[in-house]
Amino acid sequence: MSMPKCLAFTLALGLNSGAAVAADTPGLGKPVSEADLALWDISIGPDGTGLPTGTGTSAQGAVIYAQKCALCHGKDGYGGNNVALTSPPGRTERTMALYVPHATTIFDFTRRAMPWPTPKTLTADETYSLTAYILARNKGIGENDVMNKETLPKVRMPNRDGFVSRYPDKK
């Protein structure tokens, strides 16, 4: 076989085998669309980048907390089977709300992982309300402060300076 014929044969064989391999795949899944990706692209930065539109207060959060959170975290944010969100009266314990350096972290985690066992089911307003409730219970904000994408990143957490950021340029 001449060199050009051998090259053409090899090329044809390679192209056909690629089609054969594609035909032999199990055909599982489907292409991911931009709309599919948007459902999972919910990261919130320390500066509030990515926060959705919405609003909430501590009073609104108290109602939601009683319905969706108290069973696991305790009636007043402590004493439940899961992590304490506030300290019992007269005690100061390291709670998530006092430990994290940014209030947006509380929003991000709550929206992403709560309520157990149905994560990602809270609306933006519910998440802002629960975040406000947790922050107010820990004296991070006033009882009547409104949390939204403008106000939440401005909350100064008590342990903000207790962390060394892996990303010092992203304050």
Give a quick set of tags describing it.
171 residues; mainly alpha; two-stranded antiparallel ribbon; 7 helices; 4% strand
Please give the structural blueprint:
Elements: H1 3-24, H2 34-40, E1 55-57, H3 58-68, H4 70-73, H5 96-99, H6 103-113, H7 124-137, E2 146-148
Antiparallel strand pairs: 1-2
Helix pairs in contact: 3-7, 6-7
Number of strands: 2
Discrete helix count: 7
- The portion of residues forming beta strands comes to under 5%
Shape summary: globular
Percent of residues in helical segments? 40-55%
Q: Give the rounded overall mean pLDDT.
A: 86
Record the strand order, biggest sheet. Answer: 1-2
Contiguous runs where pLDDT drops below 50 for at least 5 residues:
none
Largest sheet: 2 strands, antiparallel
Terminus-to-terminus distance:
68 Å
Category by helix and strand content? mainly alpha
Q: What is the helix/strand order? A: HHEHHHHHE
Radius of gyration: 25 Å
As an assembly, this protein is single chain
How would you briefly describe this protein structure?
The protein is mainly α and 171 residues long. The chain has 7 helices and 2 strands.
